[in-house]
Amino acid sequence: MTARPRVRRRAMIIGIQVTLLVGALGIWQALASTHTIDVFFYGDPAGTWRQLMDWIHGGTTEGPLWQQIWVTLQEALLGFVIGVVLGVVCGIVLGRVKLLSEILAVYIGAFNSIPRIVLGSIFIIWFGLGMQSKIALAVLLIFFNVFFNAFQGAREVDGGLIANAKLLGASRLDVILQVVVPSAFSWIIASLRVAFGLAITGSVVGEMLGAQQGLGTLISQAQGNFNPNGVYAGLLVTTIVALGAEGLITLAERRLLRWRPPRHALEAET
User: Fold this and answer.
1) Where are the beta strands (DSSP E) in the chain?
2) Are the C-beta atoms of residues 226 and 40 closer than 8 Å to each other?
3) Which of 5, 71, 202, 251 could form a disulfide with 137 if both were Cys (CB 3.0 to 4.6 A apart)?
4) What does the CA dihedral 170, 168, 147, 256 come to, rounded to 10 degrees?
5) How far, in Å, CA of 219 to CA of 207, rounded?
6) What pTM was computed for the model?
7) What Rg, from alpha-carbon coordinates, does the chain have?
């Protein structure tokens, strides 16, 4: 497929996506305007937009909107970095040390099965209403996602590459840094896009459980005041932040994985 048909196809897909979104919002607004649905419970797009504009121009009860975004973003970024580092290190180590992975497998499985919302409440008891409890929940959500990808990537390394590296005199650390990590890199990068979304989720959920600032606090307050438009406005801001971060991660992924042949080239060969 040449460049021009790809551009046309992409434009068509974007057009369909925008049409579906506008259609869904239009139907929602029409149902609310004709009182087919109760605005008190379901809200409406116009009310959500007004709520968002009020927050932007007049601020929120907790301060300027940008400050709430920054608080949530800080928690998500710190949780993302810590969770990714821990997940990659633990995943690669357990992926290469079979005995250690067999010993810890039952504990990892049991810990992963615990509902995250319960642990979020525990973190608030341990660390209080500050950023620490939200960062801890974000780290927990990210860790397992990155860990299992890094673990599988470390297990999938070609044994021949490891054997050749050892024949050339590479130490165990050299093998991990120069063979295992690069081989598992595609697995790790693939998990990062989902991981930041989980970081945002952990931060917002933690704020809804108990916080003094942040987007989750705005959503929780709107819920307590029976203000569905405030809930939707908070979700909209959260979604925009998450999509922006995902776009940056996608650009970084493309730059870091430039060594891979394009997918359409592989399809042409096959």
Assistant:
1) none
2) yes
3) 202
4) 110
5) 9
6) 0.80
7) 23
* Other Cβ atoms closer than 10 A to 214: 29
Q: Which two tokens stand for residue 59?
A: 């601020």
The number of angstroms, rounded, from the C-alpha of 267 to the middle of its chain's C-alpha atoms is 29
Give CA torsion, residues 190, 193, 196, 201, to 10 deg: -110
| Ramachandran angles phi, psi of 63, nearest 5° | 130, -175
**Cβ neighbours for 218, distance < 8 A, ≥ 6 positions apart:** 55, 60, 62, 68, 230, 233, 234
DSSP letter string, 92-156: HHHHH-HHHHHHHHHHHHHHHHS-HHHHHHHHHHHH-SSHHHHHHHHHHHHHHHHHHHHHHHHHT
SS3 category, 170: coil
Alpha-carbon gap, residue 189 to 192, rounded angstroms: 5
d(CA 229, CA 223): 9
User: Could you tell me how many helices (H) and strands (E) the chain has, helices first?
Assistant: 13, 0
pLDDT single digits (tens) 120-170: 888 888 888 888 889 999 999 899 888 988 888 877 776 676 677 766 666
Identity of residue 109: G
CB atoms inside a 10 Å sphere around CB 170: 16
- Say which residue the tokens 């979104």 belong to: 21
Give percent of the chain with pLDDT exceeding 90: 24
Q: Can you read off the two tokens belonging to residue 225? A: 């005041």
Gap between the Cα atoms of 247 and 249, Å rounded: 5
Calpha distance 155→95 (Å, rounded): 5
Q: Residue 77's closest CA among 205, 199, 233?
A: 199
